[in-house]
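User: Watch each token:
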Amino acid sequence: MKLFIPKLCAVAIACCLSNTAFAAANVSANISYEAGEYPNDYSYQGPRTDLTINPAGSNWYLGFAYRTREHDSEQKYSRADMNAGYRFRYDGGWVQPTFNIRQDVTNYTNGTRIEATMYKPSIDYSYVLTDSISLWGDISMGIERINERTAASAIRDSDYFVYEAEPGIRYTINKWSNISLSYYINGKHSDKGDVWGLTDNSQSQQARIYASIVTPFGLTISPYIRQSIGYGSTSAWYDSALYDELETKTKLTRYAVRAMYPLSKTFTLAAEWYTETSKFKEGYTLGKEDQTMDYFRIGGVFTF
């Protein structure tokens, strides 16, 4: 699987950016540059491309994405995504099953390479209850395989069952503004439950609020907030022998805003900023400290 998904994404993006593809499909390409600032050498920056294709007259939706990041520590990270979904439309809404493949690759300066490949079916939905209230959300479950190779040629493979869900409700104030509330949960369960009596699992829950406002001059402003419900937990069986604790417990808070401004019928300037704070519960730190990171992304959306 090494480099297969990134290469396939590159070929798909090149094919879809041809004039023939434009004539036969609705295409949205978000090309941007992002940066994350941490209080240590984990800070990063790099380019990102997200492509969505809806063949003309079809209910099929195809997605391809690729991003790379270079950290101040000189470690390098990349992510490639591919997905294909079919939208079933009915009176008042739609349901869209999608199959997703994602591969994350991290190369460290000490020669270690970690590949995480995920296969995850998902279902997205939207349903209008009244003129002002609608339901929306998504749910997904799948398998993630992590392959770690060190400079000394040591190999460690891990398999996980992963899940994620975010049901929400939206209130439309008027044609220029709306607000949404949602509940978010995700988790990862490993196949190593009998190893040393530890689990290597993770889980977290959040309450989220989104808003969107279209100004009279065309600028769309979309602030949102994420707040942990209780503490999210992560156990790490290969680290735990170094500490008395068996897992970390953290609370996350994110304050964010997105903005979009159309410069023409086919190009929209887009930006996002957020600040995110992670706080650890005393006695569940595994040597880690509270931290705040700031994220910024700017780019443009081309539509054809």
Remarks:
- The mean pLDDT is 89.
- The chain has one domain: 4-303.
